[in-house]
Amino acid sequence: MEKEELKNEVQNIMQSELYRKANKAFEEYVDKTGISPRYLNQSAPILVANDTLNDAVDDFMKQVDPVQDTLREQIQDYLNEEYPIGYLSSEIDRRQNEEEIRSEMTDELLLLLDNTLPYAAADTEALAPYWGRGIAKIHSLSEFAKYLNEDRIDSFVEKYCPDWKEVTQ
Q1: DSSP secondary structure string, 5-27?
Q2: What's in the keyword line of the UniProt record (predicted)?
Q3: Hey, which of 24, 51, 106, 133 has its CA 20 to 30 A from 60?
Q4: Is residue 86 predicted with pLDDT exceeding 80?
Q5: Which domain holds residue 119?
């Protein structure tokens, strides 16, 4: 097999393996942060794989003596060594827009407060700025994600808006 054909085959396999590995890194990122994928940039794994591909192929061709029969295994070994899941996960994190995620989560939390008793029965208009100030105190998106269900909404209120009843009086 000629060198150019071999490089094309390396590129095809490398792309497939990078996509697979970047998707796994995305899943681990979701598990680690607790943030629902619906709030995240779901194209991040593809972007990471595409941004990494050319350098990875060139570096692989310099470092490894590719053998056609074991090419996929060689590429997997190379990627495990040079592009571990932790690195890919940090690249996925870099491609997230924290402001956009926080904005979407804020909308979701406000909607949840508006639709969950006893908070829904209170004066929503009076509470909106108060809820907003409480939400602004949430430091991490991981913590924020924990409050985005009916079972944990009380935890948010207790921690960040404990005197909500007084605001409506």
Answers
A1: HHHHHHHHHHHHHHHHHHHHHHH
A2: Plasmid
A3: 24
A4: yes
A5: 98-167
